[in-house]
Design goal:
Helix content: 25-40%
Number of domains: 3
Strand content: 25-35%
CATH topology of the largest domain: Rossmann fold
Structural class: alpha+beta
Bound molecules: iron/sulfur cluster
Strand order of the largest sheet: 1-2-3
Largest sheet: 3 strands, antiparallel
Number of helices: 4
Distance between the termini: 49 Å
Length: 206
């Protein structure tokens, strides 16, 4: 029988667990080995842990519930070259971003929130409204703070009168996310640079 690396980890994990219990004096009934896996009917999706910049790969098992899929299990992806199936304590609890004890996490945000200038409360707005608002503010800020040229300063610290193209804005900063894959992060910084943004950051550095 040919075993994939994933099958091997699954089998050796259950084997080691059983061996440890026997060593502790537990008598395991033979039927335990025949019980079906909890995720036997689940759909498996790969994901990326969003808690830090390491970007460990996860496997999410989901089952159909009504008209949507509900995540019933999360674990490390043994085929991911970043973590080879391992997760730290934060990554092991990544399912709690969506569900806690099988119920939707009440703290989870599913819609954009907007806090108007001077307001103390956040209000829910639609995605269209949020995206239109962001686009308008980016355009206005960029236009009002565009640096077209830089003047070259001489070795004596004085302006030389010579100018070089700059084409940037220093009035906008962007913040990437550990939720992004390498490819996503590449596109994000390309997009920011195409706008002339030079302050490109990542939340894991804050
Ligand atoms: S599992 Fe831990 S180390 Fe890996 S990305 Fe998540 S928080 Fe970072």
């Amino acid at each position: 029988m040919e075993l994939t690396r994933r099958d091997f980890i699954k089998l050796s994990g259950s084997g080691l667990g059983a061996a440890a219990l026997v060593n502790l004096g537990f008598k395991l009934p033979a039927r335990a080995a025949t019980e079906p896996l909890r995720i036997v009917k689940a759909v498996e999706t790969t994901g990326v842990c969003s808690f830090c910049a390491v970007g460990c790969g996860t496997l999410l098992a989901s089952e159909k519930e009504g008209d949507h899929l509900k995540i019933v299990n999360s674990e490390g992806n043994p085929d991911n070259a970043i973590n080879f199936g391992t997760l730290c304590s934060k990554g092991s609890a990544v399912i709690q971003k969506s569900y806690i004890d099988g119920e939707i996490n009440p703290e989870r945000l599913t819609k954009p929130l907007y806090r108007a200038k001077g307001a103390s409360d956040w209000t829910e707005i639609s995605w269209k409204e949020a995206i239109d608002k962001i686009a308008k503010l980016v355009k206005e800020t960029r236009d009002a703070n565009w640096i077209k040229e830089d003047e070259i300063i001489g070795p004596d610290g004085k302006p030389t009168g010579k100018k070089v193209p700059a084409n940037r804005t220093e009035a906008i900063g962007t913040l990437g996310s550990a939720e992004l894959s390498n490819e996503g992060a590449y596109l994000y910084q390309k997009f920011a640079r195409s706008l002339g943004v030079v302050y490109i950051e990542h939340h894991a550095r804050l």
